[in-house]
Amino acid sequence: MAFRTQIKVCFSDIDNAGIVYYPRFLHYFHLALEEFFATELGIDFADVLHTKNLAFPTVHLECDLVRKLRYGDRINMEVSVIHLGQTSITWGYKGYRAGDEGGIVVEGSNVTVCVKTDTFEKIDVPEWLRQGLKTQMRASP
Amino acid sequence: MAFRTQIKVCFSDIDNAGIVYYPRFLHYFHLALEEFFATELGIDFADVLHTKNLAFPTVHLECDLVRKLRYGDRINMEVSVIHLGQTSITWGYKGYRAGDEGGIVVEGSNVTVCVKTDTFEKIDVPEWLRQGLKTQMRASP
Amino acid sequence: MAFRTQIKVCFSDIDNAGIVYYPRFLHYFHLALEEFFATELGIDFADVLHTKNLAFPTVHLECDLVRKLRYGDRINMEVSVIHLGQTSITWGYKGYRAGDEGGIVVEGSNVTVCVKTDTFEKIDVPEWLRQGLKTQMRASP
Amino acid sequence: MAFRTQIKVCFSDIDNAGIVYYPRFLHYFHLALEEFFATELGIDFADVLHTKNLAFPTVHLECDLVRKLRYGDRINMEVSVIHLGQTSITWGYKGYRAGDEGGIVVEGSNVTVCVKTDTFEKIDVPEWLRQGLKTQMRASP
């Protein structure tokens, strides 16, 4: 099963139309990715950035927003690895409203490239990360 | 020529990798869209929402992030109408770093559907908006 | 003991000086307040707003920022009721870095007035809330 | 006259009670401060941080929120220097709703200390900045 974490829609995520401001969904993706690193790979994202000197700028993203969310909703957000390239990783995200698992709320992906945090020099996906992601991919096919 | 507005990267848009946090680009798209309504269509976006009772939830978005941006950068952001459907509008966005017009920084689009702000009932693109957008599309082919 | 909830500093809370952007601390106060309602008063803040028709605009705030926080830090945030007036409530907040309980990171308060969410008409603190807060104040003197 | 800059309330600044989320006012203070540096002191805030190696963490803030703001409002925000200490600067902010100059919307202050951006070592207010702020204080008593 894919990694899943719960995110609460907070008071300030709501826009003046009364629903979650759509750029916040990309923020939710990032929050879920931070949890993925901590839980699935056993390393805090802050340590990835500053100890491993590894950052993941996004170069492409796509997203379908299927249902609107309101304040009080909770999202069960799945994170998976869609593709593991030489220097890039494609991450997939699926969000379900808690208590309403039948219907997807949001589904998206982003392509990140691996760079050194301090210089932004592009590098290969490091071996420690590649192995961790492969293990995770086998566990949630 | 397409509508263009300038957006300053602000201090808090920067993430812990030292570049613009990628969900902020979608926020920049929205800021530019708000300016597009005020300047090109002559109506404040707040009035569209609350006087015209018209909102534009996003149902799909795509984005290529070509160059990173840092604090101090300014973006010249173009907004255009890519497709005008029965109930949906597809908006296009291209961002250039001010002072470096040769190279695009970010390029994206989102599909919005027209709904009533108070009920979120889907409606046709209203005639006043359709005419305004058609005029703008003829001016920036 | 005062109500306490944990908040993680997230990747995008960091500003271009490398520390938590100070307005985010006020956001942390609000996140903690939302948890306070859910846990201590047994009502979701979204229901307070929309079912109880009760909102809490802030009219005054004060805050001391004692230690800087970085990405990866977690804050144990205490919420308490400092004063319960006729129409106003003064909330207190104290934040400690998790794993470093000796030293306070942030300490602040805000004064909120009770209004109807739909009209913003000022009202007395409703009896259900007054009783709940009094119980909580007795429990954490 | 004090330095003044205009800030537009944007779509996403609004919270689920329909007014500007109060932590956003502190963000407006910072936006106005960034403009103050560019306009009054002739240096981009990004250059202060990274070329001058000077940052201004906030250690105390106070704020009165007098009137609520809604989407569509514009704020004329004044920035002034209230006190210039050895290592600290106290900044003052007053916000007025554009078109309604009689009544103040928000008034606040924050105390910042001067530190080196790269090490966060506390330093004296540098002479170039002290002179610039003194000139500005004489011009807007």
Q: Which features characterize this protein?
A:
homotetramer, about 140 residues, alpha+beta, five-stranded antiparallel sheet, two-stranded antiparallel ribbon, 7 strands, globular
Described by strand count, sense and barrel closure, the largest sheet of chain A is: 5 strands, antiparallel
- Measured between the Cα atoms of the first and last residue of chain A, the distance is 8 Å
Adjacency order of strands in the biggest sheet of chain A: 1-4-5-6-3
SS-derived structural category of chain A: alpha+beta
Low-confidence stretches of chain A: none
- Mean of residue pLDDT values of chain A: 94
Structure, explained:
The structure is a homotetramer of 141-residue chains. By secondary structure, the first copy, chain A, is of the alpha+beta class. Chain A is 27% helix and 38% strand. Chain A is built from three helices and seven strands; from the N terminus they run βααββββββα. The first copy, chain A, has helices at residues 23-41, 45-50, 127-139, and strands at residues 3-8, 54-55, 58-65, 74-84, 88-97, 100-113, 115-116. In chain A, the strands form two sheets. The first copy, chain A, has a five-stranded antiparallel β-sheet with strand order 1-4-5-6-3. In chain A, a hairpin with a 3-residue loop joins strand 4 (74-84) and strand 5. In chain A, 43% of the residues are buried. The mean pLDDT of chain A is 94. Chain A binds chain B through residues 16-19, 21-24, 26-27, 30, 46, 49, 55, 57-66, 68, 110, 117, 120, and chain B through 16-19, 21-24, 26-27, 30, 46, 49, 55, 57-66, 68, 110, 117, 120.
